[in-house]
Design a protein that fits this description.
The structure is a single chain. The longest helix is centred in the first third of the chain and has 25 residues. It contains 11 helices and no strands. Helices cover about 70% and strands about 0% of the residues. The protein is mostly helical and about 210 residues long.
Amino acid sequence: MNKLENQTLALAGILQSAALVNQLASKGICHSECSGASLGSIVNTSSNVVDIFDSKAELSVGMSTLKAVLSKKTKSMQTITFYALSLINLEKKLMKNPALLNTITAEINTFNKQTFFEITHTNSIARLGELYKSTLGGLNPRIMVKGEQLYLSNDRTANHIRALLLSGIRAASLWKSQGGKTWHLLINKRKILKTIEAIEKSASPSDNLAQS
């Protein structure tokens, strides 16, 4: 894959986390396969995008959301875009705070050594959610998630949302490592849309992205 394709996949990762957060906050449920892939990205230490998201199905929510964000403006897309930009800005702050970054890295390393549960297990999600809350959750301005109070006040849903926000930070870091810049979203809008189309047409959704 070329540089723009890697950037596009990582950007889709950010949008996927934002979209899943929005789904949870408004409906109490979210796309399970994409959620599992996003959560898994947190503990995947590879710097290669296709090692983290190795199939198109795992990024299906992110790719469709990215297309929608770049193509049209609706209220739901505005909320998701706000979350995505907030995640990108929060990642910038994290990179300027080595102590906090070390804390998160150390906890993820410990998590990987103690794989008692699947990444989608309630206990794993709670642990990742707590990691976000105790570290990034303290940085201002905090990401204020909007939705139904019924879901936002549910501990499991709240943990899931925080864990997905952490996955969004991971995707933002990956995007930056591939040369992603915020202004690309405006200047390279058509290029990104064409890249999405090329990736989607290159093979079937179940195929490995590395083969695209």
